[in-house]
């Protein structure tokens, strides 16, 4: 169908499934084991309901915000997804260009298909970018990557902590990736350098080699969020890697509820918080999903697969359309919720009583 008939982010997935190269579909769509967590990620948003406010003069609504001190036209960013060229020859550059056009931030993955410098050279002057780091067993290599990223102006370092070993994504494994061991699938073939020996004591080292804000990507319970806060890190992404790692991990939006509650109880923090920012990713498909996370204390959320599907199916126009759809959804839903700006999207506007505290 023509792009003009695409009405929401789910549509891109449905089209991409039938139009993308099979190998790319297998890698992008796959998740760990029985894919229960992958399904739960979106389903968890269905357990949260709105409590809209009325008569607030919502003639003008503004859904822009700041993320780690950087301006963003929406409270969401493009999260890191590896191997961008599987779906389209321009790979991650599609995301870079669309992010510039729409004023949002792209998180560049360690395992991008395009080189880091190519992506940075494609970025518009002053365009804000984050970087996702997989920590190499060889820390000298990691140090070089981190310091190069900082020199090139990266504004936030997201250290992935949920992948000491890559999850089993059976759909992907069945595709028999040609590059290395044919039984392992695309993901495993490229990830053997990742250090399973990474631990909390490495965090001081990261602080010593860079001044970029440090965020842990893949935190899944309040205990680890508290540890990150106590170590002076700048935030955490509550994420299960799009359901691609530990199956039966909980969704990020569910974990958000216990993290804000426990960090308030134990450290007196309120959220959203400038000094220690909370992010959520996994299953975000609508502006309403984003608004639920914001109401519950997140600074912003990450979106992964929908953008891959959008550019794989329709090229650069596809991702522009995906971002335009999100802008349109924000405009309408902010009005209907009775929030004139992101600061007015508050906890009292959601009923999260179906999310259990732990
Ligand atoms: C990912 N994700 C990911 N995360 C990361 O830290 N490093 C990586 O290299 C990748 N690669 C990757 C590839 C693909 C194809 C997907 C789908 C995901 C995880 C990603 O950052 C994010 O956590 C999820 O994608 C969020 O879920 P949704 O939005 O895809 O449902």
Automatic annotation (TrEMBL):
The keyword Metal-binding applies. GO terms for biological process: lactate metabolic process. It catalyses: (S)-lactate + 2 Fe(III)-[cytochrome c] = 2 Fe(II)-[cytochrome c] + pyruvate + 2 H(+). Homotetramer. One of its GO terms (cellular component) is mitochondrial intermembrane space. It comes from the Eukaryota. This is L-lactate dehydrogenase (cytochrome). It comes from Rhizopogon vesiculosus. Its cofactor is FMN; heme b. Residues 1-355 form the FMN hydroxy acid dehydrogenase domain. The keyword Ribosomal protein does not apply. It is found in: Mitochondrion intermembrane space. One of its GO terms (molecular function) is L-lactate dehydrogenase (cytochrome) activity. Its main location: mitochondrion. Its EC number is 1.1.2.3. Belongs to the cytochrome b5 family. In the C-terminal section; belongs to the FMN-dependent alpha-hydroxy acid dehydrogenase family. Keywords: Flavoprotein, FMN, Heme, Iron, Metal-binding, Mitochondrion, Oxidoreductase.
